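Hello,

Our lab assistant flagged a job as stuck in the queue for most of the afternoon. It eventually completed. Since we weren't sure the result was trustworthy after the delay, we are filing this so someone can double-check. Below is the sequence as submitted and the structure that was eventually returned. Let us know if re-running is recommended.
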Amino acid sequence: MKATALFEGSYSVDVSKKFMPFDPAKHQVEDRPASLFIYVQPFIIKTKNDLIVLDTGLGFKNEDGKLILHENILKAGFKPEDVTLVLMSHLHFDHSGGMVIEKDGNLELSFPNAEYVIQRGEWESAYSKPSKSYKTEIFDVLQRSNSVHFVEGSGQFNSEISYELTGGHCEFHQVFLIEEDDQIIFFGGDVWPEPEQVLRKFAAKYDFDGRKSMELRIEFGNKAADEDWTCLFYHAKKNAIAKVSAADDTFKIHSV
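-- returned structure --
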């Protein structure tokens, strides 16, 4: 079992929730006032039974008009049509934009042969609580495709994959553990977004429940250290795939 980061780029985002590509070599921070600067790193994992994508990025295209996510999957040695599972931590646009692709003016599934695993409460919230963070036209495509596999609460998806409803970042956020042989891979979405948040232990104001997210990071950090998890950080600037060690509630991040 191997995880590969599918780096989609770095971006600035302001109160309008519009994501703008940000290249430090070309752009100036002062030209993006009141912006949050983030990195976007979906992941792909090959197990014995599945080819799995974990969250799907913004769905931006490169200069050749091709989906960056698809190009990165090809570079990793796989084909988008061979993806069997898409595991979604939540449905904010920077995580769900790549679930679909635009072709000839129409939206189609980016992974036509995959099941999209989504927490039912998150799906319902996206429709019932209008927000700039959600783009429901994406979800309409999934709904028509009959490719959505809804889960509720916490549980076991199959023999290798378990999911846990955490809340924290948003009300129905979920995380995933993928286990095969003696290896455990943990994907924590936006309650586990980057190594710096694990190290600093702060409550983010942009979270639905920042304190809960902080407490979850401490809980998962201890488990990751105790059980030797390989951890995936979706918004990491570096060390997107790493191990964690702990001593006296102080964590250290080790790249792998």
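-- support follow-up --
The delay was a queue issue, not a problem with the job. The result is valid. The chain is about 20% helix and 30% strand. Residues 2-255 form a domain with the Metallo-beta-lactamase; Chain A fold (CATH 3.60.15.10).
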